[in-house]
Amino acid sequence: MSFLRPKDDTQPWKGRYAPYDLVKELCIAVGVITLLAVLLAVLLSSPDDKPSTIAQWSRELPADFATTAATELDETSGTAEYGPPYNHKSGSVQHFLFLHPQRWLGVSHPINTADDYVIKPLETIPNDVALTSALAEYKAAPKMQKKEWSEAYAKPLGEYATAVEEKKTPPSTVSVDQSTGAVTVKASGAGPVPVMMASLQGLAQSGGLEGGLLSSSQFFQTDYTKPLLFMADGGLLEERAEQQHLLGDQWGLMNETGSYPGQPWLWLYALWYQIEPIKSSPNGDIQVLLIMGLLSLAFICIPFIPGINILPRKIPVYRLIWREHYRSE
Amino acid sequence: MSAEPATSSRSWTVKVREKGVEALPPEKLLPDGQPTYVASWIYVFGVASIASLIVIIGSGCILALKGPAWWHETGVGHFFNSIHLWSVELFFFAMVVHLWGKYWMAAWRGGRGRVWVTGAITFLVAVPCALTGYVSQQNFDAQWISTQAKDALNSVGVGAFFNLTNFGQMYSYHILLLPVAVVLLVSLHVLLVRRNGVVPPFELDEKLTAIRAASPDPQDSAPGSSERQS
């Protein structure tokens, strides 16, 4: 098939050879690159913005923390409704035509936001009679009652967050003491939830919640999935990211903090997220991944793709590359 | 009794050695001459990619020896992290220029398809190698990149076994599994280049016409089937 097998006139080289020292060339190259890297390191350093902590989040944005914690308890947060690999919901489950890989791979890192982010950390607080009683009441209640309580608590906080976002006067049902970071929610019908959430806020502000959210019960910890997803449900990371031009619509995928180059090799990947309909599609991620998968395969197969593999012959950039050779012929 | 052991045609070791020497005799593996057409700055970017990879591995080894927290705590550590970062940037820059150069040379000609394929796969494997580095930094960049990029990987099911928010897993991928894959691919790529030689220039149209006119049965072969450069 001549269409798939283009004419290859390449002849083995029978011309002259010039002296060449491969090892010397490599040593010189390593020296030059080392020098360049050292020079860039001295002149430009590298970014290292401190990570955000849950303690910092609950102190600096106490209302945002309380709102997020409430959505974790009533299981309406981004993580609670995400779906695989964290739970069996479907809020962030994507598919393309008949392809449902996210569902197929199932729940590999189970997260129950009410238990993992609220109940279990609260159970680690000792000697708090009011909290112990509130927790017992909450755990003993039927599922519907728990939902009513947590929704009653989350509702004014949601209204507060909306008012703040729209720069309107916040409702009087929520008051925030910025000096202490205390959030008071006047929520009728919230049962034991206000006591629980006040304790959670205190635990977070003391720094005790970070360790309580780590995935393993072992002494050594390396999996930060739970605390990271909890923080990502709130607004602190996004607020910092926006200041550092790291949001998706700021081509954030390939950027990093400060004025550093980040990962410019991801430009094509980031490009698709700027283009409609992918930009606003609920299945945008899988669409981009599939496009990039196909393009990657095409990239590997360039020598065998008709048209693409004869372009270098048609567009004579090679005359520039081998100009010395052609001149000497 | 002979001083040298008797070689056996059934010896696996002998077979591997003979195959290896046949495919890559020493003068091909470490040549002291290059065809005269290898005379352009574009050829520098291949060796610059390898040199950058060596600096990346060197600086990465120093960072690994001292542990993942060291570079946050000391100026020396931060300096080596900076070298690591900039050598990665140089690596990708050199590799991209090298790839473009090889594309415009159609460097897969004359049976060199596998050279292109291994080079392209190396680039694609280097991307997650860098990404796992970014999410292993234990700073705000790591927090933000891991929580944002997870959705894309989760959407295709990869998140089930490649969890960007799991520092331990990402660190293992970054300092062992993916670098080993990159080094193996680069090694294979370089061996294939040494075996096949650097692709010769296109024959100019006027010369080609003359060659074809002189030959009643011109070569019309696919990539991969033509005689290799000796």
Would you mind describing this structure in some detail?
The complex is a heterodimer of chains A (329) and B (230). Chain A is mostly helical and 329 residues long. Helix content of chain A is 50%, strand content 3%. Chain A has a domain at 54-242. In chain A, a hairpin with a 4-residue loop joins β2 (174-177) and β3. Among the domains of chain B are: 40-105; 106-198, Cytochrome Bc1 Complex, Chain C (Up-down Bundle), CATH 1.20.810. Chain B has helices at residues 12-23, 26-29, 44-66, 70-73, 75-104, 113-135, 140-155, 167-196, 205-214, and one strand at residues 33-35. In chain B, α3 (44-66) runs antiparallel to α5 (75-104) and α3 (44-66) packs antiparallel against α8. The two termini of chain B are 40 Å apart. Chains A and B meet through β1, α1, α4, α10 and α11 of A and β1, α3, α5, α6 and α7 of B.
Summarize the structure.
Chain A has 329 residues and is mainly alpha-helical.
Note the main attributes of this structure.
heterodimer, A: 329 residues, mainly alpha, two-stranded antiparallel sheet, 16 helices, 50% helix, B: mainly alpha, Cytochrome Bc1 Complex, Chain C, 9 helices
Low-confidence stretches of chain B: 218-230
Supply Rg of chain A.
29 Å
Tell me the number of strands of chain A: 3
Looking at the structure, the CATH topology of the domain at 106-198 in chain B is Cytochrome Bc1 Complex, Chain C
Question: Structural class of chain B, please?
Answer: mainly alpha
